[in-house]
Amino acid sequence: MDDSLTRIAQMLVAPHKGILAADESTGTIKKRFDSIGVASTEETRQAYRQLLFQAPGMEQYVSGVILYDETIRETTDAGVPFPKFLSEKGVFPGIKVDMGAKPLALFPGETVTEGLDGLRERLQEYKALGAVFAKWRAVIAIDDQKHIPTDFCIEANAHALARYAALCQEAGLVPIVEPEVLMDGTHSIDVCFEVTKKTLQRVFVQLNAHRVQLGGMLLKPNMVISAKNAAIQVGAEEIAQKTLACFRETVPAEIPGIVFLSGGQSERQACETLSEINKQKGGAPWELSFSYGRALQASALVAWGGKSENISAAQEAFLAQACAVGAAREGAYVAIGS
Ligand code: 13P
Asked: Which residues are catalytic?
């Protein structure tokens, strides 16, 4: 086992800290910018990412940042490459390496994540650009009416995740393995539990078959939660109970850390649920941290609004939320206001 992978994985889930997912693809960041009425250009994207990375003190809460292909090649206004800028602050640069979830042929409503062709070479390039870890996101949708997910979709995605993870470890990069069971729809938390359980079981079967060293990777899953439009919305306590119960059945103890995605939870809910999970974790063998995108950026994005005069306000909003998420990661989140 390559000890350096284990060390990096452990540092990414150091106390109080977790990961900022700033790896929105060009299509996704356009949607985020559309929501605040800002045109998505290379210039606005660089300005926005720079304000997050330059937020003073963000390194107290952020151990690593996931970058997108465009961003890892960009620099600060002063000409320092983003990966170098982050490393000098003690923040690990990472990179999204999948090419997106694409329709799974002959399986309507399901997707398989692409990007394995040429991945070995791309990983070498990203490593040379400064990346020390990588991310690949698989997407599992639930729709009871359509009888999805199918076992085939789960297996195809688990297989691709494991091939990606093996290539990362071969290249000396820590893989973040992200099988996301979506919150979209009307399904209950119990359906989410069953689908998440089956998905994680298949993912670990494939990771083992591909000889991936579990101590040198991180798992980035969804929480076990009611769908966005489910009739019954359960609270943080039950989400924490069911999430931990699901992971106790499926996630091997060698995994150093579980870094949750926020997946459409509000900033506040993502703090409440992560905090409750950490309160209830008992003797759980893994660190339970975060790799949030929207739940770290939503307020900052609105505060910025695309205007340079709002950069300080946006950085303050980002830091306040990062501090709250950092507290939640220790089970110590206290909501402010109503
Ligand atoms: P969210 O926290 O917004 O779900 O994003 C995390 C991520 O990286 C999804 O791939």
From this structure: 178, 220
